[in-house]
């Protein structure tokens, strides 16, 4: 066990389970915590019915009470702006419900790597999420359905990397994940395992010793791609979780979404890259928003995105510059801008 793990003892599994049971789901609890009213927040009951509030307390504690524009708050706020329809914004902007999803539990769009939808649920509901309209009911992928997904992966010799996705795959428990990783390690053509997750950011206690043991002890090389959008998300507990992940020999990257009013300034993007690196993660992608219905108020134009990216490229070392990308239905990879 490395020194890094030793100086930040891993939390018990019960800690993250307790945090998952104690999510903020009632608007009244959110208003009280922030000392703001529904009116001050522009809260919409209807938007919250369409996609419910779901917010871990550890994430909420990083918000500034009294600030209706807090960049963390805006990521989870069911706002009246979501009810506005906008041309070009649809419920399946990435084409995930069609031909790329022939087998429940798998999304195979790019050569060599396949998304395995480990679970349909998340610890947090991000209002801009392109999966807010995804038919999770068809992709619940309970443990009982994993064998069929694994068989489909095993049958395709072109696949070298499996990406745990969802939902948030780390909502699944340590024991099912251990079984899944073991089964994948038995598929000879696989070389890498990737985990796309927001849990180390929103509930850092999720980074348990058993999870790290599972991810670091198989023959597969493991990459974790966390998701944070603003420097304020990376507090000391998150930095300790990053240190444990890195201490287990796992490559740690971050992806962000460019979001109007949240991180669409050069200063915010630079602060995020710097903070991520301080905490031990490298910036990977900066995504343009997927044009999902209800999220038009987060949209940043492609012209503005390019300008911002040029500005930060002129200020940051190359290794702290995320790649600016957008997803284009039918394209063979994320499209670099
Ligand atoms: C983003 C994505 C991947 C991973 O793409 P990378 O460029 O390798 O990070 C794989 N499959 C799907 C369906 C994706 O959306
Ligand atoms: S899939 Fe990711 S972005 Fe979407 S709601 Fe879950 S954690 Fe947020």
From TrEMBL:
Q: Which Gene3D superfamilies match?
A: Aldolase class I (3.20.20.70)
**Which CDD domains does this chain map to?**
Radical_SAM (cd01335)
Q: InterPro entries attached here?
A: Aldolase_TIM (IPR013785), EpmB (IPR022462), Lys_aminomutase/Glu_NH3_mut (IPR003739), rSAM (IPR007197), rSAM_sf (IPR058240)
Q: Which cofactor does it need?
A: [4Fe-4S] cluster; pyridoxal 5'-phosphate
Q: Which UniProt keywords apply?
A: 4Fe-4S, Iron, Iron-sulfur, Isomerase, Metal-binding, Pyridoxal phosphate, S-adenosyl-L-methionine
Q: Where does [4Fe-4S] cluster bind?
A: 122, 126, 129
Q: Give one GO molecular function term.
A: isomerase activity
Query: Which transformation does this protein catalyse, written as a reaction?
Result: L-lysine = D-beta-lysine
Q: Where are the transmembrane segments?
A: none
> Does the UniProt entry include the keyword Protein biosynthesis?
no
Q: Where in this chain does the record put each Radical SAM core domain?
A: 108-332
**Modification sites for N6-(pyridoxal phosphate)lysine:** 334
Family the entry assigns:
Belongs to the radical SAM superfamily. KamA family.
Cited NCBIfam families: EFP_modif_epmB, KamA family radical SAM protein
Q: Which protein, by its recorded name, is this?
A: L-lysine 2,3-aminomutase
Q: Which species expresses this protein natively?
A: Kineobactrum salinum
Q: What is the lineage of its organism?
A: Bacteria, Pseudomonadati, Pseudomonadota, Gammaproteobacteria, Cellvibrionales
């Amino acid at each position: 066990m490395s020194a890094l793990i030793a100086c930040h003892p891993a939390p018990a599994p019960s800690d993250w389970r307790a945090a998952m049971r104690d999510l903020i789901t009632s608007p009244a609890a959110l208003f009280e915590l922030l000392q703001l009213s529904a009116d001050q927040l522009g809260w919409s009951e209807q938007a919250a019915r369409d996609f419910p509030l779901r917010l871990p307390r550890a994430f909420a504690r990083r918000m500034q009470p009294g600030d209706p524009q807090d960049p963390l708050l805006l990521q989870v706020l069911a706002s009246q702006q979501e009810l506005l329809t906008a041309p070009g914004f649809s419920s399946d902007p990435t084409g995930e419900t069609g031909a790329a999803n022939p087998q429940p539990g798998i999304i195979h769009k790019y050569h060599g790597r396949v998304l395995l939808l480990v679970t349909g649920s998340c610890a947090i509901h991000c209002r801009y999420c392109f999966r807010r309209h995804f038919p999770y009911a068809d992709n619940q992928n309970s443990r009982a359905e994993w064998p069929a997904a694994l068989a489909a992966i095993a049958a395709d010799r072109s696949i070298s990397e499996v990406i745990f996705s969802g939902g948030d795959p780390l909502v699944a428990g340590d024991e099912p994940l251990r079984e899944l990783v073991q089964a994948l390690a038995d598929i000879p053509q696989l070389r890498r395992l990737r985990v796309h997750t927001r849990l180390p950011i929103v509930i850092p206690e999720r980074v348990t010793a058993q999870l790290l043991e599972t991810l670091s002890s198989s023959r597969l090389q493991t990459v974790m791609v966390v998701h944070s959008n603003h420097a304020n998300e990376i507090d000391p507990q998150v930095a300790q979780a990053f240190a444990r992940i890195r201490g287990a020999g796992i490559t740690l990257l971050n992806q962000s979404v460019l979001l109007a009013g949240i991180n669409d300034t050069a200063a915010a993007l630079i602060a995020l890259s710097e903070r991520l690196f301080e905490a031990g993660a490298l910036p990977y992608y900066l995504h343009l928003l997927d044009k999902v219905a209800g999220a038009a108020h987060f949209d940043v134009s492609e012209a503005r995105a390019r300008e911002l990216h040029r500005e930060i490229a002129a200020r940051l070392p190359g290794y702290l510059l995320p790649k600016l990308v957008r997803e284009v239905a039918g394209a063979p990879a994320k499209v670099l801008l």
